[in-house]
Every structure is written in C-alpha cells, then in structure tokens.
Amino acid sequence: MDGFTLVLWGFRLLFLLLLYLFLARVIRVLLRDLRAAAREPVQRPGRLIVLESPAGEPAVGRSFGLDVITTLGRDVNNAIVVDDPFASAEHAVLTFRGRSWYLEDLGSTNGSFINGHQVSGVAALGYGDEVQIGQVRMRLERT
What is the pTM of this model? Predict the structure, then answer.
C-alpha cells in the first residue's frame, strides 16, 4: 500500500471515531434530561371532584387531576369518561389559559352547566364552581 491510501484510511477511521463520540454525548445528554424530567413532580393546575353521579361511574368522591386541556364525555378516548346516558360522546372540554379555566360545550345534545347555568360556547370557570355533564356534577378545585 502506498502512503496516500494509509492516510485516507486514517482519516476515515478518525472521522468514524469522532462521529461515534458525538453520538455518545448526544445520547448521554438526552438520558440525563429524561431522568431529570422523571424526577420532577407533575404539577397539575386543578382537579375535578365528583359530587353526584346517579349512574355510579365516575364514583362519587373520585378526584381527577386536570391537564391544561382536558376532554369530558362518554367516549373512552376522553381524559375524563362520564358514563351517563345524558352525556354525549365528546361532550365538553376544560382548558386552562393564563390563570383562568374555561369550559367549552362541544355541541352536546343536553348541554353543559356551570353552577346550574347552561353554557353556550365558551364560559369562564373558577375554583369552587360546579360543572354538570349529563347528570354528573363535579366541583373544580385547586390541587
């Protein structure tokens, strides 16, 4: 072999070594970030506590931690499943924007209620207010 071929192979091996070192560092940083995220407690902006549920599901007294966007309805794909014959499959959505909660009725047949008043479109909601989906009543509280 001549000298040029040896130098070319040397550069190839050096490049491959540097590439593997770079990838190892990227993986190490990603794992460190994932471990740090797993240690941090999940802070939820609120919770719903079931006050009344004639059908029995969800059970009275059950507490649901809320995400920034939380869907409610009879369908199992909702964050909070309300097993009530008067609830629609995709009944309503709770959203936390800024420092306020909002309830949006998604065109349900029987409507959504806040403190006994029917919601049309989007309505503001405060801690301590009661939400009614079908015959299920829940109270919004701080975590």
Answer: 0.69
Q: What is the pLDDT of residues 47-102, one digit of tens each?
A: 999 999 998 788 999 999 999 999 999 999 999 999 899 999 999 999 999 889 99
Eight-class DSSP state of 7? H
Q: What type of residue sits at position 126?
A: G
- Cα–Cα distance for residue pair 23/29, rounded to 1 Å: 10
> SS3 sequence, the chain?
CCHHHHHHHHHHHHHHHHHHHHHHHHHHHHHHHHHHHHHCCCCCCEEEEEEECCCCCCCCCCEEEECCEEEEECCCCCCEECCCCCCCCCCEEEEEECCEEEEEECCCCCCEEECCEEECCEEEECCCCEEEECCEEEEEECC
Q: Are 89 and 71 in contact (CB under 8 A)?
A: no
Q: Which residues contact 51 (CB under 8 A, 6 or more apart)?
A: 60, 130, 137, 138, 139
